[in-house]
Each structure stands twice: as C-alpha cells, then as structure tokens.
Write a structure and sequence with these properties.
Strand content: 15-25%
Mean pLDDT: 78
Largest sheet: 3 strands, antiparallel
Radius of gyration: 21 Å
Structural class: alpha+beta
Distance between the termini: 70 Å
Pfam family, one: Tnp_P_element
InterPro entries: THAP9-like_HTH, TNP-like_RNaseH_N
Number of strands: 5
Number of helices: 6
Order of helices and strands: HHHHHHEEEEE
C-alpha cells in the first residue's frame, strides 16, 4: 500500500524525467478523469507544447489526435491560443527582458552567440485584427509614433534572430515589415 500512496505529482518529482514528460503524464491522467472530451480543460504548459507540435507538423498532430494517442486539443483551440499571442513588428521590450532572464540562466559557453538577420519575401495580404481594429499586412517598422508607416502592402520582412554557438538555442528578437527590401535607415 505504501508504494501507491501519495499524489501523482509527488511520484513524478521523484522520477528522473524532464518537465515536458511530466506535463504529458499529468494531462493523460486529467483526460482519463473527464467523461465528455469536449469539456476538457488544458494546462497552459500543455497548450504551449501542443501549439509548438501543431506548428511543427500539422499532419502528425491531426493523426495523433484522431487516434487518441495523446489528449490533444482540437486544432481550433490551438489556433485560438495562437491568435491571442501579441505579435507586433519591432523590438518588444517585455520580450527582451524575458530573453535577458533566460540568458542569465545559461552557461558561460552557451551565452556566446551571433546576431543573425535575414530579409524574407512575404505574400501580399491584408487582414483586420478585430480585437484592436488594426490592419495586418501593411508596412510596419515598430515605431507607432511614425506617421509614415502603414501606407503600403508589405511584401518583405527583416527578421533579427540570436543563436547560441554552443547550444541548440535560438530566438527571434525582432521583425520589421516593408514594401520592397528593407532600407538601411
């Protein structure tokens, strides 16, 4: 009896498994407790993992969900959470402070990295963000006080990214949308 006493969380803490595996096990147990799968509630960590999995391979996500191998939320639920993420052009100061916290936890060797930037071609499109009544798909250089932006359809983006030289860590840190190649200024 003593071998089975205690909560699942306590047992998982004693095991030598990573955080993602712990989250998966907890979600499987939570799914087993719910009678109607439409009434499932997911943890934020699980939703983020599902979001990343769905971005990486939508076909594999659909297969694993349809065969019920894992308690994955419906793709509409994942898209809803993806659309709630604030995405703007420019450098996000809140994000940079989070990146600073992440880098402070890295080893000295992993802190060595390079700043990469690349211009990519975009398909012209225009969409309205109904939550704040703004347009997406127009030029945006991240400076809201500039009256010259949002005039032309954006067909290129300049993306800044930082990549560690000794670890498998890389992160986008800024993006700027423009018509034509991004100008130097």
């Amino acid at each position: 009896m003593s071998d089975y006493s205690g909560s699942i969380e306590d047992k998982l803490k004693k095991l030598n498994i990573n955080e993602s595996q712990k989250i998966l096990i907890m979600e499987c147990f939570a799914a087993a407790k719910v009678k109607n799968p439409r009434n499932r509630r997911y943890s934020e960590n699980w939703l983020m993992l599902c979001l990343m999995f769905n971005i990486r391979s939508p076909t594999a996500y659909k297969y694993i969900r349809s065969t019920a191998l894992l308690p994955l939320p419906h793709p509409k639920t994942v898209r809803k959470y993806l659309s709630s993420i604030k995405t703007t052009c420019g450098f996000d100061q809140d994000f940079l402070s989070l990146l600073q916290k992440k880098v402070s936890q890295m080893t000295e060797m992993a802190k060595h990295g390079v700043l990469l930037f690349d211009s990519i071609s975009l398909q012209k499109s225009l969409a309205v963000n109904s939550s704040n009544l703004t347009y997406r798909g127009l030029e945006d250089f991240g400076n809201e006080d500039n009256s010259d932006h949002h005039k032309e359809y954006a067909d290129h983006a300049l993306v800044f990214m930082w990549q560690s030289l000794s670890s498998n860590f890389y992160q986008t840190i800024g993006c700027f949308a423009s018509k034509g190649e991004v100008k130097g200024n």
